[in-house]
Amino acid sequence: MTFDKSLKTVLQSLSETTGVPWPTLYEHQKSLVQEGLLKPRPGRGPGSGVLATPEVLVLFFVTFMAKRNAREMVQIENAVLNSKQVD
Known about the structure:
Layout: H1 7-18, H2 22-34, H3 54-66, H4 70-82
Helix pairs in contact: 1-2
């Protein structure tokens, strides 16, 4: 299976699904890249940036949720669990 969507692209759907503002999600992605936890592919445009693989999405969600308070976590979890599909 190949994963050709960038995390940055997927974050738009996640923002719409969870109600978390896109800039908040993107800032979290940038902090993970700065810390060396996510490895972007070099270049610009399609095929570059952090790919939205299952491993990347798990790392993103776990680290993002760890920074939320309990009320925010429940709201985000419910939004994700009640969504039909995140593209």
